[in-house]
From TrEMBL, chain A:
Further remarks about this protein from its record: The Rieske protein is a high potential 2Fe-2S protein.
Cofactor, how bound (note): Binds 1 [2Fe-2S] cluster per subunit.
Protein known as: Cytochrome b-c1 complex subunit Rieske, mitochondrial
InterPro entries in the cross-refs: bc1_Rieske_TM_sf, Rieske_2Fe-2S, Rieske_2Fe-2S_sf, Rieske_Fe-S_prot, Rieske_Fe-S_prot_C, Rieske_TM, Ubiquinol_cyt_c_Rdtase_Fe-S-su
Species in which this protein is naturally found: Gouania willdenowi (Blunt-snouted clingfish)
EC number: 7.1.1.8
UniProtKB/TrEMBL annotation, chain B:
Domain Peptidase M16 C-terminal: 202-387
InterPro entries for the chain: Metalloenz_LuxS/M16 (IPR011249), MPP/UQCRC_Complex (IPR050361), Pept_M16_N (IPR011765), Peptidase_M16_C (IPR007863)
Subcellular location, record wording: Mitochondrion
Name used for this protein in its record: Cytochrome b-c1 complex subunit 1, mitochondrial
PANTHER family in the cross-refs: CYTOCHROME B-C1 COMPLEX SUBUNIT 1, MITOCHONDRIAL (PTHR11851:SF116), METALLOPROTEASE (PTHR11851)
Lineage: Eukaryota, Metazoa, Chordata, Craniata, Vertebrata
GO molecular function, one term: metal ion binding
Length: 249, 472
C-alpha cells in the first residue's frame, strides 16, 4: 500500500492510501477555535485480508500539531480555557476587521481623490507678489486665476481720504478697514462688477479706478462711487507671510 | 335540537364549575383516585446497605410476584486502555458462557428452569448483569449472579467462538446508522480520550482476566433489586455469596478517571448510496451529578422528539416538531443528553433525506438559540410537565426500576426519589433555562457527526456561526 502525502498551499493535508476499495469518503475537521481550518481527508481501505470494514476501523487522526497549547492535554477538560480561547480569536478578528476597514478606506480615498485637481492646477490657484517692486502710488496688475489682480501701494493721503469717507454715501457701504489687511496695500480683483470689463488704474473722479465700458468710477479702496456698477471690487483672500511678500488665494 | 343540547350542557358545566369541586367534574366520580403528588410520596423507599467489602446493596420493595436483581458495576469502555480496548464488551459476551461451577449448559438450564431472563449490558461507564425472575427465586438468582461475576470460566474455545459473534454483532451495528452516528459523535467529540475509544478485536484470555481483576471490585459495585424482594433477605444473600468480592487493587493501582477533553470538531462519513442521512450535533453538557442536569433535561423536553409516526401534525407542541411536519424537514429527530461522571454530550440527532439537511440543521440550531435567549414561560411549563411524565412513565416495571436504582447509586451514591426529581424540576424557571442553556450552548464549538448522503450539510464554520445570534 503506497501512502502519498500532499501539502497544498491552503495547509490541508491529504493522506491517500492507494488500492482503496470502499467508496466512502471520510474527512475530519477540527473546530476553528481550537485550530485554524485544518481538514484531513482519508480514503479508507481495509488492510489486505481483513474481513470487513466497520466504522470502528476509522481512526480519528491526531491533530496535536495544530492544537492550541491549552487543549493539547487529552486528560484536561477544555471548558476552562474556552473563554480565553474565544476571547483571543475574537480579539484577533476584531483587530483585523478594524485594520481591514481602515485599509479599504485608504485605498478608496486614494482612488477617489485621484480624480480631484492635480498639483499643477492647484499651484495656479495662488500667486505670490513681491511688494518691494511696487513703488508708492503705483498700481500693478497680475494675472491670477484667469482674472486681473490689482495690487496698489497706497499713499498716506489716499489711506486717510478713504478712511474718512461717510458710509451713507456709498452704494455698497463698506469701511476701508474692512477691505484691507494692511492699509498700505490694497488688493482687489480688477473685474468691474457691472459687466466684467477691466477698470483703468489711477483714473476716474475719485482717485481710484475708472471702467471705460460704461463709466463706473471706483475709489482708492475699490468701492463703487459713480456709474452703473452695483458692488465694490471684489477683495480676494490674501495674507502676508512676511514683510516683503503677499500670498493671494 | 342541537342548540338546546348545547345550552343544557353549558348550563350543567357552569354549575359544576361554580360548585368548585374537582371531584364533581371528574368522570370517575365515586372511584378512589390518587393525585400525582400523593403517588410521588407514596412510592416505597429505596433501602441502601453496604457490606464490609464496600459492596452496596439497594432495593425497592413493591410486593410484586416478580423481581429484577442485578449487579451494576462502574466500569465501561472509558476505563479501557488502548491495549485492552473492547474488553468490557467482549466480557459481556463471555459472561454467560459458563462459570467454574456451572458450565454453559448447566447455567442455561438453571436459569431457564426458573423461567428467568439473564441479561447484561455495557455502556461507556457502566456494566450491568441482571436477572428477571420470580420473587421466590431471589436466592438462586443472586447465587447465579455472583458466580457469573466472580468465577466466569473464560475458556479459550469459547473465547474464540465469541470473537466471531462479537465481530458479527459489530457488523450488525453497522446497519444501525443511528448507533454508528452517535458512536462517531463520541469518537470525534472525545478524540484522543478514553470516552472516544472504539472496540478492538484481538483480545486474549489474559486481557479479560486482567480486566476483571482490575475493575470488578466491590466498592464499585451495586447489587440492586426491585419487585417483591425483602431487603434483609437480599443483604443476607449478598453476604453469603458476594462478600468474597475483592476490594483491593494490585499494587494499590486504583484506576482514577481523568477528565476527558471535549473537542469541537466534525466527522463526515459520506455515502450517497444510503437513502437517509443521520446527523448528530452536540455540545459539551453537564455531568451526571451536576445540578445543571435538571434545567438541561427540561430544555431537551422543550425541543422534544419526533418521528413520522407522530399523529399530532402541526399541532405538536415542540416548535421544531411542528416545523418538521409543516416543512417536511426530517423523518425523525430527538434531543439527547448523554451524561457521564464528569462530562456529557448535549445534542440533537436527526434523520432526514438528502435535500432537507441544511434546513433541518438551521432549525435545530434555531431551537437551541431560542432556548438560550427567548424561551417562554409556557414552553418551560410544557417541558417540565413532559419531563415529569417521562421520568414517571419510564419506571414501568421491575427491570426499569432496578436499572434506575443501580445507575443512581453508581452516579449519585443514593437513589433520587421521584418526589425529589419533581421538586427540582418545579424549581426550574425560564430564566434558569436561559442561563444554563447559554452556559452550555451559546457560542460554543459543537461536535458534528454525519453519515449518509450528506453533501448538503453546510461547512463547519457555518454550523459554528449558527451557535450565536448577532441580534443579541
Amino acid at each position: 500500500t503506497v501512502i502519498q502525502v500532499q501539502i497544498s498551499n491552503a495547509s490541508v493535508m491529504f493522506i491517500r492510501l492507494s488500492n482503496y476499495i470502499f467508496p466512502q469518503k471520510i474527512y475530519f475537521f477540527l473546530s476553528p477555535l481550537v485550530v485554524l481550518n485544518i481538514s484531513k481527508y482519508y480514503h479508507v481501505s481495509p488492510a489486505p485480508g481483513a474481513v470487513r470494514l466497520a466504522h470502528t476501523d476509522i481512526k480519528i487522526p491526531d491533530f496535536s500539531e495544530y492544537r492550541r497549547p491549552e487543549v493539547l492535554d487529552p486528560n484536561k477538560s477544555s471548558q476552562e480555557s474556552g473563554d480565553a480561547r474565544r476571547a483571543f480569536s475574537y480579539l484577533v478578528t476584531g483587530a483585523s476587521t478594524v485594520v481591514g476597514i481602515y485599509a479599504a478606506k485608504t485605498v478608496v480615498t486614494q482612488f477617489v481623490s485621484s480624480m480631484s485637481a492635480s498639483a499643477d492646477v492647484l499651484a495656479l490657484s495662488k500667486i505670490e507678489v513681491k511688494l518691494s517692486d511696487i513703488p508708492e502710488g503705483k498700481n500693478m496688475t497680475f494675472k491670477w486665476r484667469g482674472k486681473p489682480l490689482f495690487v496698489r501701494h497706497r499713499t498716506e493721503k489716499e489711506i486717510a481720504a478713504e478712511e474718512a469717507v461717510n458710509l451713507a454715501e456709498l452704494r455698497d457701504p463698506q469701511h476701508d478697514k474692512d477691505r484691507v489687511v494692511n492699509p498700505k496695500w490694497m488688493i482687489v480683483l480688477g473685474v468691474c462688477t457691472h459687466l466684467g470689463c477691466v477698470p483703468i488704474a489711477n483714473a476716474g473722479d475719485y482717485g481710484g479706478y475708472y471702467c471705460p465700458c460704461h463709466g463706473s468710477h471706483y475709489d482708492a479702496s475699490g468701492r463703487i462711487r459713480k456709474g452703473p456698477a452695483p458692488l465694490n471690487l471684489e477683495v480676494p483672500y490674501y495674507e502676508f507671510p512676511d514683510e516683503e511678500t503677499v500670498l493671494v488665494g | 335540537m342541537a342548540a338546546s343540547v348545547c345550552r343544557v350542557g353549558s348550563t350543567v358545566g357552569r354549575s359544576l364549575v361554580k360548585s368548585r369541586s374537582p371531584i364533581l367534574l371528574s368522570l370517575r366520580r365515586g372511584q378512589a383516585s390518587v393525585s400525582y403528588a400523593q403517588s410521588l410520596l407514596g412510592a416505597p423507599e429505596t433501602r441502601l446497605t453496604a457490606l464490609d467489602n464496600g459492596l452496596r446493596i439497594a432495593s425497592e420493595e413493591t410486593g410484586q410476584a416478580t423481581c429484577t436483581v442485578g449487579l451494576w458495576i462502574s466500569v465501561g469502555s472509558r476505563y479501557e486502555r488502548e491495549k485492552n480496548n473492547g474488553a468490557g464488551f467482549f466480557l459481556e459476551h463471555m459472561a454467560f458462557k459458563g462459570t467454574k461451577k456451572h458450565p454453559q449448559s448447566a447455567l442455561e438450564q438453571q436459569v431457564e428452569s426458573m423461567g428467568a431472563h439473564l441479561s447484561a449490558y455495557t455502556s461507556r461507564e457502566h456494566t450491568a448483569y441482571y436477572i428477571k425472575a420470580l420473587s421466590k427465586d431471589l436466592p438462586k438468582a443472586v447465587e447465579l449472579l455472583s458466580e457469573v461475576v466472580q468465577s466466569c470460566s473464560l475458556n479459550e474455545a469459547d473465547i474464540e467462538q465469541q470473537r466471531g459473534v462479537v465481530l458479527r454483532e459489530l457488523e450488525e451495528v453497522e446497519s444501525n446508522l443511528q448507533e454508528v452516528c452517535l458512536d462517531l459523535l463520541h469518537a470525534t467529540a472525545y478524540q484522543g480520550t478514553p470516552l472516544g475509544h472504539r472496540t478492538q478485536q484481538n483480545l486474549t484470555r489474559h486481557d479479560l482476566v486482567d480486566y476483571i481483576n482490575s475493575h470488578y471490585k466491590a466498592p464499585r459495585m451495586v447489587l440492586a433489586a426491585a419487585g417483591g424482594v425483602n431487603h434483609e433477605e437480599l443483604v443476607g444473600l449478598a453476604t453469603d455469596h458476594l462478600s468474597g468480592l475483592s476490594f483491593e487493587y494490585e499494587g494499590d493501582a486504583v484506576p482514577v478517571l481523568s477528565p476527558c477533553r471535549f473537542t469541537g470538531s466534525e466527522i463526515r462519513m459520506r455515502d450517497d448510496a444510503l437513502p437517509l442521512a443521520h446527523i448528530a450535533i452536540a455540545v459539551e453538557g453537564a455531568s451526571a451529578a451536576s445540578p445543571d442536569i435538571i434545567p438541561l433535561m427540561v430544555a431537551n423536553a422543550i425541543i422534544g422528539s419526533y418521528d413520522l409516526t407522530y399523529g399530532g401534525g402541526k399541532h405538536l407542541s415542540s416548535r421544531l416538531a411542528r416545523l418538521s411536519v409543516e416543512e417536511n424537514l426530517c423523518h425523525s429527530f430527538q434531543a439527547f443528553h448523554s451524561a457521564y461522571s464528569d462530562t456529557g454530550l448535549l445534542g440533537i440527532h436527526f434523520v432526514t433525506d438528502r435535500n432537507n439537511i441544511d434546513d433541518m440543521m438551521h432549525w435545530s440550531q434555531n431551537a437551541w438559540m431560542n432556548l438560550c435567549t427567548t424561551v417562554t414561560e409556557s414552553d418551560v411549563a410544557r417541558g417540565k410537565n413532559a419531563l415529569k411524565a417521562a421520568l414517571v412513565g419510564q419506571l414501568n416495571g421491575t427491570t426499569p426500576v432496578c436499572d434506575d436504582i443501580g445507575r443512581h447509586i453508581l452516579n449519585y451514591g443514593r437513589r433520587i426519589p421521584l418526589a425529589e426529581w419533581d421538586a427540582r424540576i418545579d424549581a426550574v424557571t425560564p430564566k434558569i433555562v436561559r442561563d444554563i442553556c447559554s452556559k452550555y450552548i451559546y457560542d460554543k464549538c459543537p461536535a458534528v457527526a454525519a453519515v449518509g448522503p450528506i453533501e448538503q450539510l453546510s461547512d463547519y464554520n457555518r454550523v459554528r456561526s449558527a451557535m450565536y445570534w448577532l441580534r443579541f
